[in-house]
Amino acid sequence: MPKIAVLPGDGIGQEIIPEAVKVLQAVLGKNNLKFEYQEYLIGGAAIDQTGKALPLETLNACQEADAVLLGAIGGPKWDVLPAPERPELGALLPLRKELNLYANIRPVKMVPSLLSASTLKEETVKNVDLVVLRELTGGLYFGEKGRHDHPPAAYDVLVYTEIEIRRIVELGFQTAQERRKKLCSVDKANVLESSRFWREIANDVARHYPEVELTHMYVDNAAMQMVRYPAQFDVIVTENMFGDILTDLASMLGGSIGMLASASMNGKKGLYEPAHGSAPDIAGQNKANPLATILSAAMMLRYTFELHAEADQIEKAVTKVLDAGYRTADLAKPHEKIVGTREMGDAVIAALA
Ligand code: IPM
Ligand code: MG
Fold first, then answer.
1. Sign (positive/negative) of CA torsion 66, 271, 79, 10?
2. Pairing verdict, β 103-109 and 263-266
3. Which residues, judged by CB distance below 6 Å to any ligand atom, belong to the binding site of ligand 1?
4. 332-337, long-range: CB < 8 A, 24+ apart
5. Rounded to an integer, what distance in angstroms lies between the CA atom of residue 27 and that of residue 353?
6. How far is CA 322 from the centre of its chain?
C-alpha cells in the first residue's frame, strides 16, 4: 500500500492537513484506492514534545514513505530559540536537504471566479498561468554562514555547483516542453558570479531543447514584470532565494497565498506543502484556507503516484467550490459570506461527487 508521511506541524498546519487528508480519502475511496497515512511530529510541535524540531523518527518515516504531506512549521513561541534549533533551520531545511528535494514546483493559475480576489487589476491577472521552478537545496540557504567579532559582521555564502544548476534547469526545459514552450531563467548576472555561471549552464542545456524558447531576466526586472504583465510567463526557473521571494509575489497573481500549492521533488519522491506559513495569528480559529494544501495533495497524486485522473478530480472540485462562491476570509470581499476551514474542506468533498 502506498505510504504517506503526514506532518501537520504548527499553527494552521493542524487544521489544514486534516482537510487535505479528508479530501484524499474521499477521492481515493471513490476510485477504490487505499493509502496508508501515518502522522509524525515536526517543527515547534516536535520541539515541545521531543526537544528536537526534526526527530529522527520523523526523518526516517519521511525517507521510507512514498510521499510526505506537510502543513506548516514555526511560530513566535519558538523564535526565541537559537536559530539552528528553530523549526525553519532545525526541521524544514534539513528535511529538504536529507531527502534531496532539489526541485520546488509552484504553479500559479488564475481561477476566473477569483479574478476579483486579487489585489491586482483584473486585466493584469486575467490570463495568468505560470509555474515557478525554484532550486531548493543550494544557494544562500545552505551555504556557510556565521559571524565575526572584530569587527562585528555576519555572512551567508552563496555557492552553486554545476550539477545543482544543470538538474533544475533541465527540469525547467522539460516542464516548458509540456506547456507553452517558454522558459525564463531568472538571475542577477549583472552583479553575481553565481548568476553568470547559472546563465552559462542554462544556455548550454538549451542546446538540447531546440523547441523551447529560453530567455534570461534579472530578478529585479522579473519582480516588476510579474506585476506589470504576468501572463507573459510560462515556466520560470531560478535559484533558491530568488524563488522564495518571487513565489510569494506570484501567489497574489492567483488571488491569495492561501491558494499556492507546492511540490518539492527528487524524481518521483516528493514533499507536498502549501507555500504559506503557519499563520499563528489565525491558528485554531477555523479561519485558514485549506485549498493550497488540498491542491498540494492533488500535486502529490499527479507527480508521485501518477494518478492524473484523481488529481484532476480534486482540482476540478476546487474550481467548482470557488465558482459556487465559497470563500475563506483570505479570499472574501467585504460583502461576501465567509466559510471556515472545515466547511471549505467539506465543500470540496461534496463537489467531487
Ligand atoms: C517557503 C518558506 C520557507 C523558505 C521558510 C519557512 C524557511 O518561506 O517554503 O517558501 O524560505 O523556503
Ligand atoms: Mg517562502
1. negative
2. antiparallel
3. 88, 92, 244, 275, 277
4. 332/117, 333/116, 333/117
5. 9
6. 21
145 is catalytic: no
Q: Please give the share of the chain, as a percent, with pLDDT higher than 70.
A: 100
CA dihedral for 134, 106, 122, 340, sign (positive or negative): negative
Q: Quick check: helix, strand or coil at residue 163?
A: helix
Provide the CATH topology of domain 119-254: Isopropylmalate Dehydrogenase (3.40.718)
**Phi and psi at residue 182, in whole multiples of 5°?**
-125, 125
Distances (CA, A) of 227 to 170, 241, 248, 332: 27, 19, 12, 21
Query: CA-CA distance, 75 to 311, in Å (whole number)?
Result: 31
Residues with a beta carbon under 5 angstroms from ion ligand 2 = 244
Candidate list 22, 40, 187, 188, residue with the active-site label: 188
pLDDT digits (tens, 9 = 90+) for 254-265: 988 999 999 999
Of 22, 40, 102, 141, the catalytic one is: 141
- Superfamily the domain 1-101+263-353 falls into: Isopropylmalate Dehydrogenase (3.40.718.10)
CB 62: neighbour CB atoms within 10 A? 22
CB 321 within 8 A of CB 347: yes
Q: Quick one: which H or E segment has residue 292? A: helix 291-303
Catalytically annotated residue among 66, 129, 248, 312: 248
Q: What is the pLDDT of residues 5-14, one digit of tens each?
A: 999 999 999 9
Determine the residue type at 121: K
Q: Which residue has the cell 522539460?
A: 174
For 73, half-sphere exposure in the C-beta direction (CA atoms, 13 angstrom radius) is: 27
The span from the CA of 260 to the CA of 294, in Å, is 10
pLDDT at residue 347 greater than cutoff 90: yes
pTM for the model stands at 0.96
Domains of the chain: which residue ranges?
1-101+263-353, 119-254
Mean pLDDT of 152-168: 98
Residues 134, 243: contact at Cβ < 8 Å? yes
Atom of ligand 1 nearest to the CA of 240: 12
Per-residue cell: 261: 500549492
